[in-house]
Amino acid sequence: MGIIINRDTKVVVQGITGLQGSFHTRLMLDYGTLIVAGVTPGKGGTEVHGIPVYDSVSEAVERYGATASMIFVPAPFASEAALEAMEANIKTVVLITEHIPVRNTIQILAYAKRQGVRVIGPNTPGIITPEDCKLGIMPAHVFARGEVGIASRSGTLTYEIAAELTKAGFGQSTCLGLGGDPIVGLSFVDTLKMFEQDKQTRAVVLIGEIGGNAEEQAAEYISFNLKSKSSPLRIVAFVAGRAAPIGKRMGHAGAIVMGKTGTAKSKIEAFRKAGVKVAEKPSDIPKLLAEKI
Amino acid sequence: MKLFEYEAKNILAKYGIPIPDGALASSPTEAREAAIHLHPPYVIKAQVLVAGRGKAGGIKFASSPEEAAKHAKQILKMNIKNLRVNEVWIEEKIDVKKELYFGITTDRAHRCYVAVASAVGGMEIEEVATKDPEKIVKTLIDPDLGFRSYHARAMARKVGYSGKLMIKLGKVFAKLSVAAMDYDAELMEMNPLVETTGGSFVAVDARLIIDDNAIFRYPQYEKRLFSEGQTELTPEEISARRAGLAYVLLEGDIGIMGNGAGLVMATLDAVQYYGGSPANFLDVGGGASKEQITSAFKILLTDRRTSVVLINILGGITRCDNVARGILEAKKMVDFTKPIVIRLVGTNETEGRRILTEAGIHVLDSMEEAAKMAVEVSKGR
Fold first, then answer.
1. HSE-up of A173 (CA within 13 Å, CB side)?
2. DSSP 3-state of B117
3. What is the pLDDT of residues B253-299, one digit of tens each?
4. Inter-chain contact B264–A251, Cβ cutoff 8 Å?
5. Is A102 within 8 Å of B213 when comparing Cβ atoms?
6. Res A70 pLDDT > 60
7. CATH code that applies to domain A11-120
8. What ipTM describes this predicted complex?
């Protein structure tokens, strides 16, 4: 089980002939991801690691029935790639690309809503259901199959925490990066709803950071829907950026405290009020999960 | 990227929004010349990219060209929040009947742009939001529909106008929304937007922050990104940006570098947790090249406040052997004798560790152990 993807998900890689696209296609194939085609305009008819390359997404969809796309296209062209995928009837778009202008992201997400498409990212490491399938650039060896779902706004911090969980014997159901941009597709609340429906997932780790109010919204959702003893999920959170100053972007376009909005303190308080344990440091997460399960 | 007030105003004027007549000056003589061609009384305003210039004395009033020159001389000598004032904007003073606010920004939660208006202008909109939240009117902008004339009129009505003035104000709102979209605004605002005693609306102050990720669409501003005094960035932040790195200067003494924004933030937090104080945030990002690692490391090593350098690399796309070679190369270039604590795991980890260990640098496994050790070293100096 796990959410969104599995071994049978037919995947197109947009930007497959690029350095990153080709490198990660190799790693995803090795992991067992069913990549059916690649797309690079102008390179149709070639192959990358034995995967046929097409000029357009619609050709790949018609021929193989692909339902998911991974996008490695550079920022100035990435929004065109995403719109093309959605118009070609792709239902899950993983937008790895960083530095897409917000104006384009807004347009992508509005179209996604109309087409009923799930967008992961932009600026995401992707999604992995350990020992089953990955649509992402994460190092697979830190993940192990299990019952803990992870939703995160950060890439490397997810690897850090997944490695801690794996070491402590907590495998993962599905781990996904929501993306480090101010405006992204899937939210914490969206993923919580999916994890609730997933039979494999019994606990969720939410990894937040400064900026925006996605964590506060998650806390509100949890206090209304997942606080009771009968809730199907145990939830633990971590929030990065306690030491971050106001008004400075901390690496991610979305990681910025503006005025009083988006502080780590506000997020931690919101989680605690909703009954969610918040870890002081990443290595505390397994302990908190153990208390909860 | 923040634009100067005069640049934002010139853009407004291009879209047909009234602004006070004015001119730019970089010397008292130029200021006097400019004033002669304008109608008194004048306002002389420091052009700096930080808020709070009024409180710092960066805005002055004058009734003659001579007085304008005198004020310009003073203002041009100022440093406001560590930023040098290189230019002043001189404009005609507007007769104010009422000060309003109107701006366009992004709404993260609703994944769209939002128009914000207020019947209270001239102060930070966040302050109004805290003190008088009922005075703020917001309209979420549907990405397919855009901000329409009837949305604009409805907002004008809600901030207290009717009849002809409502129509007039609505037009100003609508024009700003077009400008904001055209310029990839993270924020574009008129504050205050003034209703004059003569019954028109004039943008007396304006701000435009362009989305950094869209700056490639504006080559005229893009080339300025790397020049000192032309952005709100410090010299260190500029050299980091040039190397494609994310850097933020902080107040402590522990130099910190890592890969991935979240991981570096968590490293800062861990240092603080163990009682230490970070000197900076430095993210080399995913898939950093050896050259980027070298530049990053050089920035850390040239910071004189540093007592110890803490490096936290968890290789995803970043290769540990590249990191190790970059570190050694930078260390050679900059004569650095302070202690270095490194945490290095991930892709090509064994090779990376071998390279560093052979060079006599100790490598740790855990981020928290490394943070703790860095704090201990910093305290023991």
1. 24
2. strand
3. 999 999 999 999 999 999 999 999 999 999 988 767 778 888 888 88
4. yes
5. yes
6. yes
7. 3.40.50.720
8. 0.94
